[in-house]
Amino acid sequence: MNYTDHYLKFTDEAEMLTVYQLPTDESEGITYPGCSVDVVGMIVHTPAEIDEDGNVITEAVFSEGWHVNVRSEGELPEALKPFEIPSPETPARVWL
Question: Taking Cα atoms as reference points, which of 71, 67, 73 lies closest to residue 88?
Answer without folding.
Answer: 67
